[in-house]
Amino acid sequence: PSIVIGDSQTGAICKQQGIHRMMRLLLREILPVVPGSPNTYIDFVPQDSIAEAIIGLVNHKVVTGEYWLTAGAQALRFSEGLELLVEHASHLLGKAIPKPRLMNPAAFDRLIRPVFLPLFPERQQRIFEESLTFLKYMNMEETFSSSFEQLHQQLGITVLPDPRQTAQRSLEYIIGYSSERRTQAEANIPKEGVSV
Questions:
Q1: Which residue from 21, 121, 136, 167 has the least number of CB within 10 angstroms?
Q2: CB 169 within 8 A of CB 81
Q3: Using one digit for the tens of pLDDT, what is the confidence trace for 154-189?
């Protein structure tokens, strides 16, 4: 499958992925420059769509064939996804979230990474490095094939939801999750299911 994000309706996910880390950096306003090209693609699929496709294949005893559980032609352009997240976060938080500037990845590696990253505390450097590693999976020159339409026609699984809505639900979940964790940490009250 492609990048797996939270539930298409709630954004909930039990273990956050690299794309969630990027969202948190965006929300903290510590992501001024992002290595990427505006015309590349981000291919992500909500976990409930992947689960439904796998369950459909198992229930119909499909044991042969190759199935691409990806967004395919529905994948968002990198610039479109970034703009969507910035606008939605700004709306949800009631304040303008600055849009990171896109920079050619080679130029970023040559100019920004060696000069500015060492200036950050070690923990933040590690977070940035992990996030930058993840970004290469978000900058695809072409879209993948996708089997969701085929699986919809053959097995009756739900069509892949609009990726814009799915990204918005994941962002909403991240904002609620981060806010809940911060509140719990301040109160020092452990809550079942959320580690502080």
A1: 121
A2: no
A3: 999 999 999 999 999 999 999 986 556 555 555 654
pLDDT per residue as tens digits for the range 7-36: 999 999 998 888 888 898 889 888 788 888
| Residue 159 CB neighbours (<10 A) | 12
Predicted structure pTM score: 0.82
| CA distance linking residue 20 with residue 131, whole number of Å | 10
Q: How far apart are CA 81 and CA 75, in angstroms?
A: 9
Does residue 190 surpass a pLDDT of 70?
no
Rounded Cα distance, 100 and 51, in Å: 33
- Return the SS3 of 101: strand
Structure tokens at 67: 């199935």
Give me 41's structure tokens: 């693609």
Other Cβ atoms less than 10 A from the Cβ of 194: the count is 10
Nearest to 135 by CA among 40, 30, 70: 40
CB 108 within 8 A of CB 33: yes
